[in-house]
């Protein structure tokens, strides 16, 4: 596997992109992204579990059932969520405009929106923005699409990876956005990936669904699951590898690369949590079942009290044990060991759920890092799982106290 630095979506053959300002956001900030495959492609998607699904989610859920998908268009600034029949009409009008601009079928289009809930799309700006975005499509490498989908994100989130399958070079490139309203089972996050791998739509869907379970569904910033979440992967099959139509060795290689891309994008989202000062990784080891490992990791990474302690560089391990206790995981709470780790070192602070005599100053120094790992050994089996999140700071309240202003 090879990470291709400074390359983005249109590094994939026959993928054109643009990221432009439509005027929806203030100060001419980029707010509309177009991703287009020059050749026929298939797509797979995983969508929010929130019952209050936004109009673009409803429409894209229907369109992704079709075999071919050639375009993804994303606007930021307005979510088009909780907008009723007008919102649905605006979504359909958006799709119709894209269809005319790119000369493709309406059913071959995925639309995504992110931003303020409850506001109608300013359609005059959106329509003109789509026309501009489609005219601006380019093969020239650019992070403009990743910039255009940001809301409260503080940095662009993008990664491109190469691997060899069947003697052919396959590429997976992805961009994502997400900072707040982030919780397992998807959140205010969008992730869009493109690839040239030759794979059936059915196997692409299976690979993505399974990958999302171990990546995006294992992150949390604040416990809120949004109305607009989507992860979509578009494959135009131009790598010329033997088609992947079953779970063979080629599929396993592709899935490994897909997981790598999604883990890295998921970690970027967790690291960029609103007001966050550090990325937190929770590694649960030696659980009885994989389900228990995941439940334990999620429970700790979601614990607001644990997140607050980490913000204060406080080794308040009791909050970790507490979170394990209500996780509904199958575990023995009397057998837990806890380690804290960062680039500054590693130290064991709990053995068999009892505090060890550790150096408080050393632990505080380890915690005072931009990336902190909590290692939790359940000593009950051989299953492992990881989850990612961030600390909870004063700034989280400040940001969300004035989100609409």
From TrEMBL:
Taxonomic classification: Bacteria, Bacillati, Bacillota, Clostridia, Eubacteriales
EC number: 2.3.1.35, 2.3.1.1
Site residues (Cleavage), renumbered to this chain: 187-188
Compartment list: Cytoplasm
Keywords per UniProt: Acyltransferase, Amino-acid biosynthesis, Arginine biosynthesis, Autocatalytic cleavage, Cytoplasm, Multifunctional enzyme, Transferase
Family stated for the protein in its record: Belongs to the ArgJ family.
Residue positions of the active site: 188 (nucleophile)
Binding-site residues for substrate, renumbered to this chain: 151, 177, 188, 274, 400, 405
Pathway assigned in UniProt: Amino-acid biosynthesis; L-arginine biosynthesis; L-ornithine and N-acetyl-L-glutamate from L-glutamate and N(2)-acetyl-L-ornithine (cyclic): step 1/1; Amino-acid biosynthesis; L-arginine biosynthesis; N(2)-acetyl-L-ornithine from L-glutamate: step 1/4
Identification of the protein by name: Arginine biosynthesis bifunctional protein ArgJ
Function noted in UniProt: Catalyzes two activities which are involved in the cyclic version of arginine biosynthesis: the synthesis of N-acetylglutamate from glutamate and acetyl-CoA as the acetyl donor, and of ornithine by transacetylation between N(2)-acetylornithine and glutamate.
Principal localisation: cytoplasm
Subunit structure and binding partners: Heterotetramer of two alpha and two beta chains.
Reactions this protein catalyses: N(2)-acetyl-L-ornithine + L-glutamate = N-acetyl-L-glutamate + L-ornithine; L-glutamate + acetyl-CoA = N-acetyl-L-glutamate + CoA + H(+)
Entry superkingdom: Bacteria
Organism this protein belongs to: Clostridium oceanicum
Pfam families xrefs: ArgJ
Annotated site location: Involved in the stabilization of negative charge on the oxyanion by the formation of the oxyanion hole: 114-115
């Amino acid at each position: 596997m090879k990470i291709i630095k400074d390359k983005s979506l249109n590094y994939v053959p026959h993928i054109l992109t643009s990221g432009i300002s439509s005027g929806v956001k203030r100060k001419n900030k980029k707010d509309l992204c177009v991703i287009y495959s020059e050749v026929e492609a298939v797509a797979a998607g995983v969508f929010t579990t929130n019952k209050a699904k936004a109009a673009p989610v409803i429409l894209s859920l229907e369109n992704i059932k079709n075999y071919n998908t050639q375009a993804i268009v994303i606007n930021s600034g307005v979510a088009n969520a909780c907008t009723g029949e007008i919102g649905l009409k605006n979504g359909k009008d958006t799709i119709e405009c894209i269809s005319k601009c790119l000369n493709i079928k309406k059913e071959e289009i995925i639309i995504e929106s992110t931003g303020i809930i409850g506001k109608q799309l300013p359609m005059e700006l959106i329509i003109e923005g789509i026309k501009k975005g489609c005219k601006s499509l380019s093969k020239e490498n650019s992070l403009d699409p990743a910039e255009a989908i940001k809301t409260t994100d503080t940095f662009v989130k993008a990664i491109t990876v190469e691997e060899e399958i069947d003697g052919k070079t396959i590429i997976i490139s992805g961009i994502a956005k997400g900072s707040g309203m982030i919780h397992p089972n998807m959140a205010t996050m969008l992730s869009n990936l493109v690839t040239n791998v030759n794979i059936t739509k059915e196997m692409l869907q299976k690979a993505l669904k399974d990958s999302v379970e171990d990546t995006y569904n294992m992150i949390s910033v604040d416990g809120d699951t949004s109305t607009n979440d989507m992860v979509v992967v578009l494959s135009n099959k131009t790598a010329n590898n033997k088609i992947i139509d079953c779970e063979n060795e080629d599929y396993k290689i592709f899935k490994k690369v897909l997981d790598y891309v999604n883990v890295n994008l998921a970690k970027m989202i967790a690291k960029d949590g609103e007001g966050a000062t550090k990325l937190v990784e929770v590694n649960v080891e030696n659980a009885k079942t994989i389900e228990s490992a995941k439940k334990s990791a999620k429970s700790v990474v979601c614990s607001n009290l644990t997140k607050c302690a980490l913000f204060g560089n406080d080794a308040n391990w009791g909050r970790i044990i507490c979170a394990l206790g209500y996780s509904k995981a199958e575990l023995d709470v009397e057998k837990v060991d806890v380690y804290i780790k960062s680039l500054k070192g590693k130290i064991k602070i709990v053995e068999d759920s009892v505090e060890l005599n550790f150096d408080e100053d050393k632990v505080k120094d380890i915690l005072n890092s931009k990336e902190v790992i909590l290692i939790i050994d359940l000593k009950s089996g051989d299953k492992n799982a990881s989850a990612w999140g961030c600390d909870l700071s004063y700034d989280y309240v400040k940001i969300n106290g004035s989100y609409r202003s």
